[in-house]
């Protein structure tokens, strides 16, 4: 992998610095500069590989991020025209359209509905480590900037826009994975659905959104590391997995956790979002979010039963031998998913007693 090469660590450092610059800035120009530094650090890692599909995904990602940056600059210029300052925490009451354009630019960068078309095609052509960075680290800066936008100017139009985007993202994440066979694209649709839940969580509780994001990053990290360790890079189709039964069970447990099946760990943040959202006026949006999550669970459970039946036929751990490290990692991942979810559910039950 490219991370083992000297320049790989440099690009990872540049990407991290760009994210920290964006999150810690209170000036629109420095926020935009931080996002561009992050892009400069991430792009070479996408186009380094010799594969045509990976280079194609890198070019697609560059074009989409350039479009998002253009909307970001355009929206900040509209806000500047009403207040004559680039500072972030200034009340731009005369430029509601500028705020909507800013939010649209950040949604393009995240891959939220209706700007979601690029994410599955880009992720389908990338190696596992690049998919991990795209699904986790690259979401941090735009997500926190959307949260700051909502705190800065929580007008009805912006809240309504967030509700429509979150509901649409959940439905896209459910419908998109129905007929999907590529596991990378399946995880991309799952990411779109989870982003819809996170965006809706920002309307009610910043703390809930941060917990949701943290648990999603933990589960995604476990998922991509499991896939990376069990695959040399040729795994494209779900039906052609050449891994041991233990690793298959680990991957399927993580998929069910991503789908939000109780009592696994992925169910906890969705329960928190439902608890905080039922006190507000957007109950229909919660219903749509749950509907999208149920559709995601449908194809996750279909995969789970197909894997389970194939393992029952084999009665063995497959032809692939697992090292002691891999076995320990698989057991730790399953313990975190099952025990973590049960522990948090029991803690909440004791509180309500």
TrEMBL record:
Annotated membrane topology: Multi-pass membrane protein
GO CC list: mitochondrial inner membrane
EC identifiers of the protein: 7.1.1.2
Any matching Pfam family: Proton_antipo_M
GO annotation, biological process: mitochondrial electron transport, NADH to ubiquinone
Keyword Transmembrane applies: yes
GO molecular function: NADH dehydrogenase (ubiquinone) activity
Domain (NADH:quinone oxidoreductase/Mrp antiporter transmembrane): residue spans on this chain: 26-295
Enzyme class (EC, first level): translocase
Location (main, coarse): mitochondrion
Keyword tags: Electron transport, Membrane, Mitochondrion, Mitochondrion inner membrane, NAD, Respiratory chain, Translocase, Transmembrane, Transmembrane helix, Transport, Ubiquinone
Transmembrane regions: 7-23, 29-49, 61-85, 97-119, 158-178, 185-205, 211-230, 251-269, 281-309, 329-350
Reaction(s) catalysed by this chain's protein: a ubiquinone + NADH + 5 H(+)(in) = a ubiquinol + NAD(+) + 4 H(+)(out)
Subcellular location: Mitochondrion inner membrane
PANTHER family, per database record: NADH-UBIQUINONE OXIDOREDUCTASE CHAIN 2
Function, in words: Core subunit of the mitochondrial membrane respiratory chain NADH dehydrogenase (Complex I) which catalyzes electron transfer from NADH through the respiratory chain, using ubiquinone as an electron acceptor. Essential for the catalytic activity and assembly of complex I.
Family recorded in the similarity comment: Belongs to the complex I subunit 2 family.
Designated name of the protein: NADH-ubiquinone oxidoreductase chain 2
Species assigned in the record: Oxymeris dimidiata (Orange auger snail)
Gene giving rise to this polypeptide: NAD2
